Each structure stands twice: as structure tokens, then as C-alpha cells.
Amino acid sequence: MVERIGTCRVLGEIGSGGMAVVYEAIQEPLNRRVAIKALKPSIAIDSQFAERFEREAHFMASLQHENILHVIDFLKDGRSMFIIMEYVDGIDLYDLLERSPRLPADVAAIVTLQLARGLDYAHFRGIIHRDIKPANIMVSMQGDVKLMDFGIARHERFGDLTETGTGLGTPSYMSPEQILGDKLDFRSDLFSVGIVLYQMLTGRKPFVEDETRTVMQKIRLDRYESPKKMGVEVPRKLERIMARCLQKMPANRYPTTQALIDDLTEFLAPRVPMSHNARLVMFLHEIGVMTGEQTDEVLSAVAPRVLRRGQRESGFLWNVAKWQAAALAMLLLSGLTVQAATGHWSGPPAGEAPAVLDVDEAGRLTVSADPWAHVHVDGVHVLTTPAANAISLAPGRHYVKYVNPYFAPVEHIVTIEAGEELHDRATLTQPLSVVETAEAAP
Q1: Could you give all domains of the chain from N- to C-terminal order, each with its CATH number?
Q2: Angstrom distance (rounded) from CA 398 to CA 349
């Protein structure tokens, strides 16, 4: 393995593809970690692959956006080429989907929104990515989504490096026109975004080869199976967004990438009352990508108001700051569960706060809400969903109320038993009137 590249000291190999190897390195003059993409020695410096590699460096260097991987430098050394890029501490979407094949709807929408923002920036500058797929999407430990690998990107001012009628890309994520080798515009990338969104929501790709058709034939000719038929519940608005991206005819997709961004923003507004980055960080913690300590460190930097209510070996509580953003709610007290009981809501005992005991004496309560809610237990605000960790409560009956300023509240009675676990879930479906919504807003 090479030990030095320019002013960078190589630490080790972190990935390899057909054309290049990626190393982790330290850029010594600035003492910062970088990633270096090196053209493989087997690729001739005067080949079409080398030309494509250099073009990738120029494309990425021209795109300075928070959702696109930044290029720091490009080096030629004899018969070698190197792209020096920012190092992203995180996980690519391919590996993330290996850990969690189906993502929560809000998480999938946030990933898609950040991806669309990066693409909109590139599309405005005439660049089409042409290889949108999970392996080219990074989710960082800071909750950023980064689009990578512009190796087969195309600029409208430059010719292709392929013959007419030849498609480049990953077959399962290609648009119909890309498969046919037709001239592409930004709407081809939107089709690929729709495929990635479908996969995040359902746990499978929309077009899968079988004994009757290849994946390319299915993309061109067949309609994907609806999530509902697969037994997967997807919010109707998000399913409409996905369906519009996956239209066979480019003219039927979104007219601009910004239009897709607008719909995703509207979908997320009532569902994620916090920083989108913070929500992604929370999810990475939930699936074990980040430890509690790592998550605590990141969120303490992004949340304007953070209250720790106790700390054990695997969690923490984040108090959500009002509307605008950056707040979360998580309580770290070893797991919880609850037993839901039916009955008419009569309100919490007057003047009493929920009794919180030591873990050994407590019952365990976890809660979730669709789309999201402030959760009150026995009249006291405890957390705001989504929250992965639990609430420790004394055995007995407790009153749980889910409040969202856009919907009528939902009220449950739960009965907790010492040492037992149960999950309580609320679905808020009855919208409030405009007047009621204004009154409910903090």
C-alpha cells in the first residue's frame, strides 16, 4: 500500500471499486483527515477511464454544496491520479439499509430531501449525476447526507464518454430513458431518487429481475408493486411524491428538482419539529451506528436547549426546544415497557407528577406517534417523539396524552407492572381547524 500521496500520510484503505481505490489519510499541513480516491495502476493514464476520473474531479470541485462531497485537490503523479476529498465519518446508505432494511418514513424523507438539495444545486449548473444509488449516498455522524461519486456524471456542455445508445449506471437504479441510451436531463436523476426512496420505505427495490423479465425490462415496461400490497404502510403524501418520481415518461415527473424539494419540505413540516440533522443522528443511535456518548456529543452542539435527566449506560434525555428546530427528546433510563389498558380518559390525578423510580422497581414505557407528538404522562410533559428510549414509571395506572398542534390530541390509559415492558402507540388523524391550530401553537 502507498504510504504518502502529496502532503498526505495514508492511514489505510477504506474502499475499492473497479476503477479506483479509496484511502483514509491525514493531510499533514492542516492536520485533518481526508479521503483520497486513487486511480488503480491497471488503468492506463491515457484511457477513457482516466479521462472520466479526471472529469469527476473537475465536476466535484465545481460543486460546493453541503450535500455534495467536497473535493480538496487533484494530483497527477507520473502514471497515477488522485482526488483528495473531505473525509466523512459516517455510513453509506447501502450499509445503513443492511442494518435497517426499512427506514421510518420521516427518516427516508429527510435523506431524500437532503439528496434532492444536492442534486438541485448540480442540476442548476447543468450536471446530471446518472448514478444515484445507496452506495453513493453517505449519512454522516453529524446528520448530513452527502452525494458522492460523479464518475459518470454528464455536463450539458460536454459530450459523453460513451457511444450513442450506450447506457452507463447501475441497472437497478436507472431511468427508462437511461436504459434506452436516450439523451438525458435532470429528470433521469429524479427517477433514480424515486427508486432509492421506494427502497428506503419498503426494504426492497421496486424493480427486481425474475424468470420472465430482466430488471431493465421491468423498469421500462412494468409498474412497481405498491407498498400497500406489500403490507407496508407509507404516508399517502410521501407515496405520491415517490410515485411522481417514478413516472415512466420524464414529462410526468417533477418539472424541477426544486418542486420535489418543496413537496418533501411540506411533508416533513408537521412531522419533524426539530433539526433534520438531529433526527438522523437520533436514528443512527437507534440502530446502533452511533453510541450514546457519540450522540450526546453531537446533539449537545446542535440543540439550543438540552436537558439531561439522568444517564445510564445506553441513553440520554433531550428536551425539545420549541418549533424551529434543533431539539429532540430522548430519555436514557434502561428500557421500558407498558401495558395499555382501555378506559375513558378522566385526566391525571390532580397535582401529581408521574412517579419515577429506580430501574429495578420501575415498569418500562416506550411510546411512538404518527406523525409526532408531545407526550404528557399524568399531566407532565415527558418527551417529544420520535424518541428511542423509554420512560421509567411506578407500577400502576398512568394517563398518557399525545399532543400535536395540527391534530386533535389522543389520550390513553396505561397500566404499568414492575419489570415488564410494553409499547404504547398513538395515531393522530383528526386535523384541527385553523382556529384551533393557532390556539394550540406554542
Answers
A1: 4-86 (3.30.200.20), 90-268 (1.10.510.10), 291-440 (no CATH)
A2: 9
Question: Which one is catalytic: 131, 189, 370, 424?
Answer: 131
> If DSSP codes are grouped into helix, strand and coil, which group holds residue 356?
coil
pLDDT digits (tens, 9 = 90+) for 417-432: 888 888 898 888 777 6
Quote the cell numbers at residue 54: 479526471
Contact (CB, 8 A) for 266 and 259: no
Please state the pTM of the whole predicted model.
0.70
Residue 242 to residue 249: CA distance in whole angstroms: 14
- For residue 228, give the DSSP letter: G
C-alpha cell at 10: 495514508
The answer to whether 283 touches 295, Cβ cutoff 8 Å, is no
Query: 396 is written with which cell numbers?
Result: 400502576
Residue 328 to residue 361: CA distance in whole angstroms: 27
**b/e string for 269-299 if b means 16 or more Cβ within 10 A?**
ebbbbbbbbbbbbbbbbbeebbebeebbebb
Q: Has 131 been annotated as catalytic?
A: yes
